Recover the amino acids of this structure.
């Protein structure tokens, strides 16, 4: 029997890629499934409808909302925690899709933030892919992503909030509260705001 897991339907927008949950196999390396589930399995269709109903009831991500810790592992099998309460200075959380062109456009900016600011100061920056391991590994290799990335297709349900668009960039504090949030590509002001939040006294210009 095949295992079915939650995945994310992606459609390109001007500022990001719209997301809504669908059900696909975890081993698929093909494009994201269309909105209508084409499987002839009644159980899969029913599961999909149930998931859609659950997803619609979730509160959308917004500044001031708090998300729970999510235990996961990166693509090398190392344990990591999204929204860890042990990160006293907080963390930068990046939610993206390997098939989203805006995410691909934004990735070089996240990488520069990591190399020029986060890595030298040992401030956590975590990437979460909304698609399966196969597609996530491919995206990490293609874009040469240097920071930890986890594949969590059901991230909406894990953090108990609806993710309506990717890419989404979040600054979380040590309680898991969203302090700042950007949807879509990052401009220079956003990159500067990210640096200033974590280090108000730092004079670091991160551009890409």
């Amino acid at each position: 029997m095949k295992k079915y897991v939650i995945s994310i339907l992606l459609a390109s927008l001007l500022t990001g890629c719209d997301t809504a949950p669908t059900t696909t196999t975890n081993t698929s390396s093909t494009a994201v499934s269309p909105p209508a589930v084409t499987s002839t399995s009644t159980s899969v269709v029913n599961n999909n409808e149930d998931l859609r109903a659950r997803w619609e009831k979730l509160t959308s991500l917004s500044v001031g909302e708090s998300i729970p810790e999510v235990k996961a592992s990166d693509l090398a099998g190392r344990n990591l925690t999204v929204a860890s309460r042990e990160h006293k200075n907080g963390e930068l959380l990046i939610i993206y899709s390997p098939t989203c062109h805006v995410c691909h456009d934004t990735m070089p900016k996240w990488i520069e933030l990591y190399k020029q600011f986060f890595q030298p100061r040992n401030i956590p920056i975590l990437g979460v892919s909304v698609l399966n391991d196969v597609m996530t590994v491919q995206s990490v290799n293609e874009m040469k992503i240097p920071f930890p990335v986890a594949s969590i297709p059901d991230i909406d349900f894990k953090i108990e909030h609806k993710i309506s668009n990717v890419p989404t960039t979040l600054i979380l504090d040590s309680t898991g509260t969203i302090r700042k949030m950007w949807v879509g590509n990052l401009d220079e002001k956003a990159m500067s705001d990210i640096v200033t939040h974590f280090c108000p006294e730092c004079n670091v210009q991160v551009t890409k």
